[in-house]
Amino acid sequence: MRTMTPKCKRHSSMILKSCKLHKFVLAYTRGANNSGAGGLGCEILKNLALSGFKDIHVIDMDTIDVSNLNRQFLFRASDVGKPKATVAASFVMSRVKDVTITPYYGAIQDKDQEYYMQFKLVICGLDSVEARRWINATLVDMVDIDNPESLKPLIDGGTEGFKGQSRVILPTLTSCYECSLDMLTPQTAVPLCTLATIPRQPAHCVEWASILEWPRVFEDKKLDNDDPEHVQWIYEQALHRAQEFNISGVTYSLTQGVIKNIIPAIASTNAIIAASCCNEALKIATGANPYLNNYMMYIGNEGVYTHTFEHEKKDDCPVCGNLATDFAVDPEWTLEEFIDRLKEQPEVQIKKPTLVTERRRLYYQGPPQLNEQTRPNLEKKMRDLVDNREEIAITDPGLPFSLRLNVIFS
Ligand SMILES: [Zn+2]
């Protein structure tokens, strides 16, 4: 049993101001979509500096967009186009005395374990599952049981509209990000028949226009979500359909939101979650009070509600557990069907998997020769390819580790 305490005993009674030894890394990388975790990053950086943290590194791969200015308060109109990390760092340093903030404009994945080893803790305000999985797997992998300093607490904050969460992850000791991947809300798709026959909500009308009408009218032209003319067309069709069914609420910005899958970023949610994250950072750094164990949820949709619970470690977690995950498989499935089922699993989250067992190559995405060699397997039945309880190792560009699945024939 590993017993390590992440608390810095030497500094437990000191105030942070004199605690220059602590280094913190803060990553607030935005992903490909527009749901804006940069707002969380601004809040976290400002809170850390004002709480007395002295040495902070900030990583962000994004540049400032004009649409960020309504909530990402460290940026001004003249900063549009500049890297967020650099601008945020110099803004906070100009306002808060004696803090050193080192920006890095790039992805968290650019940095290696040696880089992360220099910090006392890592705070994430990421908006991409992929980046979170990567930093989580990296920090778990860094833990060396003979070196307590190698355990870097990870504080993870996230927001989505009026909802948010903050959590404290002690890699290898508590449940990790990967352990809770099945809590992610699956994309709720509206059945096509609803869209085609009786829409009930304004969003249904927009989806009808983009999923059904666009391909019907413009057979060969792909819908470009960023082309204002395309969005305008979708908006007009959706509005027309909404009027037919007496549905109100179709607007241009709703249309944009639905087709781009945008969840609005809300400044107050960011402020609450960032405050919680920084509170935990302060407690971990100073030992002033017990820290969160280990998951806090905030739900602000219909009132103000928070709930704290201990998310349990999964023995078969592919990152911090040591057992292969059991996966029920119908022996009659083809390999292709098996892969499709895998892709639907919220706790797996893979897109282009390569699959192998100890004794054979099941399917390779590349290189071309291996892909060609293994492609015929896609049509073969699972019972002809693997045995009951045989282990399949899965790698995927989106997976920062290799996943082990135990095939359980049902
Ligand atoms: Zn785990």
Automatic annotation (TrEMBL):
Keyword ATP-binding: yes
SUPFAM superfamilies assigned to the protein according to its UniProt record, in alphabetical order: Activating enzymes of the ubiquitin-like proteins
Family: Belongs to the ubiquitin-activating E1 family. UBA3 subfamily.
Gene Ontology annotations for the cellular component aspect, listed alphabetically: cytoplasm; nucleus
Catalytic reaction(s) noted: ATP + [NEDD8 protein] + [E1 NEDD8-activating enzyme]-L-cysteine = AMP + diphosphate + [E1 NEDD8-activating enzyme]-S-[NEDD8 protein]-yl-L-cysteine
Name of the protein this chain belongs to: NEDD8-activating enzyme E1 catalytic subunit
EC code(s) of this entry: 6.2.1.64
Domain E2 binding: 327-410
Species per Swiss-Prot/TrEMBL record: Tuber melanosporum (strain Mel28) (Perigord black truffle)
Function: Catalytic subunit of the dimeric E1 enzyme, which activates NEDD8.
Pfam families: E2_bind, ThiF
GO molecular function: ATP binding; NEDD8 activating enzyme activity
Recorded superkingdom: Eukaryota
InterPro entries: E2-binding, ThiF/MoeB/HesA, ThiF_NAD_FAD-bd, Ub_act_enz_dom_a_sf, Uba3_N, Ubiquitin-activating_enz
Pathway: Protein modification; protein neddylation
Keyword terms: ATP-binding, Ligase, Nucleotide-binding, Ubl conjugation pathway
Gene Ontology biological-process annotations: protein neddylation
